Amino acid sequence: DELKNFDDFAGRLNKHLNFLDAKGIGYARSFANVDVSTSFDMDQKQFHIELSNPIGFGEIRFTTDGTNPDLSSSRYLEPFNLSETTVIKAATFYNSALYSMVASEKVWIHKATGAGITYDTKYSEKYSAGGDNALTNSLRGSVSLTDGRWQGFSGDDLSVMVNLNEEVDINSVSLGFLQTVGSWVFYPKQVTIEIQNSNHETV
């Protein structure tokens, strides 16, 4: 629609927010909260990171050392890549001041990151966590059942195989589970881990 001009809207929004601030009138700032979007490149073994807020408002500044961003932090101008475990923190700044909540995301790089998964038991469509790559996408779920990162299974025991494509040394295995009794979501009663070599022999 030619009557819908985003640049014109953004200009009017800025003026209106300045008016509300001058009058000391409170308002929700959730429209400025930063979304951290990640995807993993299997060939390059690195994460592709994109930062945004819903309406492209203000300036987004971020850090990759675990500290909260401030006006001296890097300004987000384009997507970037990460090849090691990193904590990303980002926020929107407006009129030279922090304007939004600080978003935080930790991406984990490990030997199974991006590895293929063979499912003997299919996950619930209600809790798919994005599909077949969810268990090795290196994004941890929160304490919220509805954050879109938990993969759920119902009725049958979960059985999956993680294919690392080559023999590697394994020193430890880390798993994450969520229990929300009120929603009938429970921890597993038992976990069994088996390791196979390239000849599919259990070792």
Mean pLDDT: 87
Unreliable runs: none
**Approximate helicity band:** under 10%
Rg is 22 Å
Q: How much strand content do the residues show?
A: 15-25%
Biggest sheet details? 5 strands, antiparallel
- Order of helices and strands, N to C? HEEEEEEEEEE
Compute the number of helices.
Answer: 1
- The number of strands is 10
Derived structural class:
mainly beta
Describe the structure.
This protein has 203 residues and is mainly beta. The protein contains one helix and ten strands. Strands 3, 4, 6, 7 and 8 form a five-stranded antiparallel sheet that branches. A three-stranded antiparallel sheet has the order 1-2-5, with no helix packed on it. A hairpin with a 4-residue loop joins strand 1 and strand 2. The mean pLDDT is 87.
